[in-house]
Design a protein that fits this description.
With 200 residues, the protein is an alpha+beta fold. The chain has helices at residues 22-28, 34-47, 50-55, 57-64, 75-78, 82-85, 91-98, 150-158, 194-199, and strands at residues 2-5, 9-10, 73-74, 105-107, 113-116, 129-130, 132-136, 164-173, 181-191. The longest helix is centred in the first third of the chain and has 14 residues, at 34-47.
């Protein structure tokens, strides 16, 4: 496995916290298990993070709809995301998960939407600190695909050096008239802090 620094940029990344207000706990005691709420909170942390919003055109547009990057994303929309849907289909669980991230996310008064506490702006797309490595020589299958757990393995490999904000596998367009894309054995690994990058 080889890796090098690249020019992918980052700003502040939201952090998961496990605290909930007593009122929130009382309201969600019967909603779901702590493990489910924690898992959904982790997905929300990722989806609303600077690292993801720079890459996720859909969510970025939703958040930039309002002035100063304070746009709200409907919980109904979030429940259509596969990595949330695999944990729950209940809006109350998403609300409960968001309420564990009070420094990062705010739930709408009607409990139908979620927004960032710290606005995301277009300036964050360009004016950030480089926090990424580009790695090569990732194994690919005979049909030019990555193994299903490749992203998890890459994240686990680099997490000891610092929080990994994003792993993005690289592909290229298929050749010879074939449709779709093929794996090229590379990936960007973005850290949440410069310290993590330097240690890696």
């Amino acid at each position: 496995l080889r890796y090098r620094c690249c020019n992918t940029l980052c700003h502040h990344t939201v952090v998961v916290r496990s605290t909930m207000t007593e009122e929130a706990k009382e309201e969600t005691n019967a909603v779901a298990s702590d493990e489910t709420i924690k898992a959904v909170a982790e997905r929300l942390r990722f989806f609303f993070s600077d690292a993801n919003l720079r890459a996720d055109t859909f969510l970025r547009k939703e958040i930039l709809k309002a002035e100063e990057g304070k746009g709200k994303v409907a919980i109904e929309t979030l429940l259509r995301f596969n990595s949330i849907k695999q944990h729950t289909s209940d809006p109350a669980v998403v609300v409960a998960a968001a309420q564990t991230l009070p420094d990062n996310l705010v739930v709408g008064d009607d409990k139908k939407s979620i927004a960032r506490v710290t606005p995301f702006t277009l300036k964050m797309m360009d004016d950030n600190i480089p926090l990424s490595l580009y790695i090569t020589n990732l194994p690919i299958t005979k049909d030019n695909k990555y193994a299903p757990d490749t992203m998890k393995q890459v994240r686990n490999l680099f997490e000891p050096y610092g929080e990994v904000a994003l792993v993005k596998l690289r592909f290229k367009r298929a050749e010879g008239g074939e449709k779709g894309s093929v794996a090229i054995g590379g990936a960007f690994v973005e850290f949440s802090s410069k310290d993590g990058l330097e240690k890696a």
